[in-house]
Amino acid sequence: MTAPPIAICIPARDEADRLPDLFAALDRLIVPPGIAVTLCLLLDGGSDASMAPIAAYRTAGCHRLVVEVADRGPPNAGRARDRAMRLGLASVGQGDAILLTSDADSLPAPDWLVAMTVALDQADLVVGDVVRSGRGGNRDQDRIERHYAGLYALRRRIDPVAWEAPAVHHHASGANMGLRAATYVALGGFLPLARGEDARLVDDAARAGMRVRRDAASIVHTSDRRVGRVQGGLATNLCALDRDGLGAVSVAHPADQLWQYRQHAVARRAFASGDFAAMSGVIGLDTDHLLGVARDCPNAEAFAMRVVPVPPGGMRHIPFVAAEAALALLTASPAAAAAAA
After folding, report:
1. CB of 296 within 8 A of CB of 123?
2. Residues of 278-316 as b/e, b for ≥16 C-beta within 10 angstroms?
C-alpha cells in the first residue's frame, strides 16, 4: 500500500533572510519510508529578495518545492495560510494526503514528520508544541506558557479523551499543525482572519466532533522576534511584556475554566447514556434542549464542545499572578480541583 504524500505548507512575507535556515531545517527532516514530501511556499507579496534562496534550494534542496506568489496587500494571516494549504491540496491531492503547516520563522525538529504521521493515525487534527528560540527570551512569557500548559494538563485529568497524546501542551498554533487533506476541505480551511486563524480552526474542528490532539512529541522551534508580520501576534505580546511586565496581564480564572472542563466530561457521559437530567440543572438548559442539541451532533466530542456554556457567574478575569497561584493550588490538590470544577 502506497503511503500518503505530505505537503508542508508555509506562508512567507518578507522572509528572505530566514528562508535559508527554514530550508536547512526542512532538509534535516527524517522522512518516513515510502512518503513523498512537497514543500509548498506561499510568498505573500513579492517585495523582498525571497527568490534568491528559493532558486538555490531548487538547485540543491532535498524536497520538491512549489512556490506561488500572491499580490501584495494588507497582512492577513488566515488568508495567507489558507492559500498555502490550498497550494498543498493542488500539489498532493485530497483524501488521505497529509497537510502540515508552519511559519517561515520556524524550524521543525528533525523527527517532526515522524511525530505528526504517528499522531494523525490517532486523531483528525494534530497541533504540535511550539518552543520559542533565540536570544530575545522573556521570563514573563515563559511563566504565562507554563500556566497554560499546567491548565491544559489539568483539563485532561478532568476530561480525558482517548485520542489525546501522552504528553500534552496548550498551543493551538499554525506554526505546528497537521491534518488530512479531506479533513481540511471538510472544515472549509483557515478563515481570512488577520490573526487567530489557527485557534479558530481548532475550535471549529472540535465543534464538528473531530479528534483534536495536542501532542508535545511534535516540536517546532519558532522565533521570539519583536517585529512580526501581523499586529497582535506573538511579537506584539512579547513587546508588551518587555515594556509592562506581568502587571498588565489578566487571564480567565482557573476555577471557571475547570468548571467548563468538568461539564465537558459530564456532557460526554450524558451523550453516551442519553440521560441529560443530571447536567440540565447545572448548566441551565432544559433536557429537551439538550436532547435537541445531541440529535444534531455526530458524537460526544461535538456535543460537549457545543453545549457547555460559560460558568453561571460568567468567565471571570483576574490578574495573572493571582491566576497562577490559584492554579498551583488546584494542581497540588486533586480534591481542590474537583471541588472548584
Report:
1. no
2. ebbeebebeeeebeebbeebeebbbbbbbbbeebeeeeb
SS3 labels along the chain: CCCCCEEEEEEECCCCCCHHHHHHHHHCCCCCCCCCEEEEEEEECCCCCCHHHHHHHHHHCCCEEEEEEECCCCCCHHHHHHHHHHHHHHHHCCCCCEEEECCCCEEECCCHHHHHHHHCCCCCEEEEEEEEECCCCCHHHHHHHHHHHHHHHHHHHHCCCCCCCCCCCCCCCCCCEEEEHHHHHHHCCCCCCCCCHHHHHHHHHHHCCCCEEEEEEEEEEEECCCCCCCCCCHHHHHHHHHHHHHHHCEEECHHHHHHHHHHHHHHHHHHHHCCCHHHHHHHCCCHHHHHHHHHCCCCHHHHHHHHCCCCCCCCCEEEHHHHHHHHHHHHHCHHHHHHHC
Helices (H) and strands (E) in the chain, counts: 14, 10
Residue that wins the pLDDT comparison between 86 and 49: 86
Q: Between β-strands 212-223 and 125-133, what pairing exists: parallel, antiparallel or unpaired?
A: parallel
pLDDT at 26: 98
Residue 84 has pLDDT above 80, yes or no: yes
CA distances from 78 to 180, 195, 214, 272 (A): 18, 7, 21, 36
* Total count of residues recorded for the chain: 341
Q: pLDDT value at position 341?
A: 47
User: Within a 10 A sphere around the Cβ of 153, how many other Cβ atoms?
Assistant: 16
Contact 6, 37 (CB under 8 A): yes
CA–CA distance, 120 with 178 (Å, rounded to integer):
8
**What is the predicted pLDDT for the residue at 3?**
87
Whether 155 and 261 have beta carbons less than 8 Å apart is answered as yes
